[in-house]
Write a structure and sequence with these properties.
Number of helices: 17
Largest sheet: 3 strands, parallel
Distance between the termini: 94 Å
Oligomer: single chain
Mean pLDDT: 78
Order of helices and strands: HHEEEEHEHEHHHEHHHHHHHHHH
Length: about 500
């Protein structure tokens, strides 16, 4: 597994130039803190199931796929009771797409017998789900109805490669090892057929002994101690695993490619089964799988609902009519229901209960969307802010020209006439929009929208005023000082008005 990590972290161009690039650099012991733990000797190293904390993203047939490395204790661990070994295999085969069974020197019949028991245990977990399921219509005793994905026998310390043979010749010489192990000449009571029928595909790869130095307890993982043939065959094996036969994990419930969220739900559900050292029964696996499946279905349904609602009523959206909001909600509910039915795969009662919970959550979500939409009422006419500001300026200029230059300058008369046309048209457009708003949404919505338009217009006008006041052109023309004087005078008048009001109150 440490060599797996080296392969996945090594730049691909390095591997193309030198397939054995992973054997360069520091020894394995030097990287122990960031990799899987290993040690020489007879004592076991891995207990339970370990998953490397970092996923490796690889592109497979144009699709980005996350690769996770999982290490389990030995399936034939003499220090663990059979129930634990069964549980470890059951979990690992349900969670993985590419199962590697590490055996020593050859595939023996007792190994296949143990494997047959493990597989039957894993099948029992699935049979409870499959049995009489209304959706699939399949019976639980049909083992072929739920195949696992890929099983590979990795035979270590293989001693039958010929001297000076090429990697390709070595691989070809060992291709019949698995077939010979499964093709027995005696009645195995269906064991071989059950094993072959439980997986989509199976294969074997034989690795030679790494070298006697690796057996010493003091060995630090120096690559120079490894036999050249071991390095060659390991490099070929890693390419086969991660480039030639990578198997994308599918959901054991839906049969579709597994998504990260789904894996998370399944791991959390199975973890609950094993909490406090409880050993799983088949029904526990079924309960865990059911819970994981329904959690995923609910999450995906709500995600589909929110995604559609957000297109028109989410953050950054403008106000939409209540009728249109309700129509949008109806579409979002139908989409959520379709997503839920696609994923949820258990009994009718469980699906009904889960869907009822989703409906309640969607009602809560819709209330939030409705409240947020109401808060956008004052923004309904915000699109007319700049036009309204320009029309207001045009109106003021028209009024000023009436008293300053219309009586003696034709250009002022023409400009005043054009300004009048402009602000009249803008007033008509906004008036029409306001009238339609009154008819469709009522008086309160209309008044709030007009209030919002006025506030936006004043704000935009103030911003432009400040920009003009601070501009270089305004300072050169002396407008800045005029504006300051006007502001002071306006402030003085306000103070006088307030003082007059206070005197009246005192009297």
């Amino acid at each position: 597994l440490d060599l797996f990590l080296r392969y996945l972290t090594e730049p691909e161009e390095n591997l193309e130039k030198d397939p054995e690039a992973i054997f360069h650099g520091p020894n394995l012991k030097h990287e122990q803190d960031s990799q899987f733990y290993f040690r020489a000797g007879a004592e076991r190293t891995t207990v339970g199931i370990w998953i490397y904390s970092t996923p490796f993203v690889r592109t497979i047939k144009g699709t980005k796929v996350a690769v996770l490395l999982m290490d389990t204790q030995g399936l034939f661990d003499p220090h663990a009771p059979p129930e634990v070994n069964n549980a470890v295999f059951g979990l690992s085969v349900l969670l993985s797409s590419y199962q590697i069974l590490n055996v020593s020197k050859q595939i023996q019949q007792n190994t296949l017998s143990e494997l047959d028991l493990f597989i039957q245990f894993a099948h029992r977990a699935m049979e409870v789900w499959k049995m009489d399921d209304e959706k699939t219509g399949k019976k639980g005793d049909d083992l072929g109805s739920h195949k696992f994905q890929y099983l590979q026998f990795l035979v270590r310390d293989w001693g039958h490669y010929k001297k000076n043979a090429t990697v390709e010749e070595n691989i070809a010489s060992a291709k019949d090892v698995l077939d010979n192990a499964l093709n027995t000449t005696y009645n195995d009571k269906g064991k071989a057929d059950r094993i072959k029928g439980s997986f989509d595909d199976m294969s074997v790869f034989c690795l030679p002994h790494p070298g006697f130095a690796a057996e010493e307890e003091e060995w630090q993982g120096e690559f120079g101690d490894l036999r050249p043939i071991f390095k060659q065959m390991t490099a070929a094996y890693l390419k086969k695993v991660f480039a030639d036969t990578v198997v994308v994990k599918r959901d054991v419930v839906t049969g579709k490619p597994l998504e990260p969220d789904t894996l998370g739900y399944q791991i959390m559900s199975f973890t609950e089964v094993f909490r406090e050292g409880k050993l799983p029964e088949s029904i526990d696996f079924f309960s865990a799988m059911k819970k994981a499946n329904l959690l995923e279905a609910k999450a995906k349904a709500l995600e589909a609902y929110r995604k559609l609602m957000d297109t028109e009523a989410g953050p950054g959206s403008t106000y939409i009519k209540e009728k249109m909001l309700k129509q949008l909600e109806d579409k979002a509910i139908k989409k959520a229901e379709k997503e839920f039915k696609t994923i949820a795969a258990f009994g009718e009662e469980e699906r009904k209960e889960a869907w009822s919970d989703i409906v309640n959550k969607m009602q809560e979500e819709f209330k939030r969307y409705k409240d947020a939409n109401k808060n956008r009422i004052d923004k309904i006419l915000s699109g007319f802010t700049t036009l309204a500001l320009c029309a207001l300026v045009a109106f003021i200029l028209d009024m000023l020209s009436d008293y300053t230059c219309d009586w003696w300058l034709d250009a002022c008369v023409t400009g005043s006439r054009m300004a009048k046309y402009f602000y009249t048209i803008v007033a008509c457009v906004i008036g029409y929009k306001t009238f339609m708003l009154y008819n469709e949404e009522g008086q309160m919505v209309m008044l709030k929208a007009l209030g919002g338009l006025w506030a936006e217009t004043v704000k935009e006008g103030t911003d432009y005023y400040e920009q003009v006041k601070k501009s270089e052109t305004a300072r050169e023309m002396g407008l800045t000082s005029i504006m300051d004087m006007a502001e002071k005078k306006a402030g003085k008048e306000d103070e006088d008005d307030n003082a007059g009001s206070d005197n009246k109150s005192g009297d």
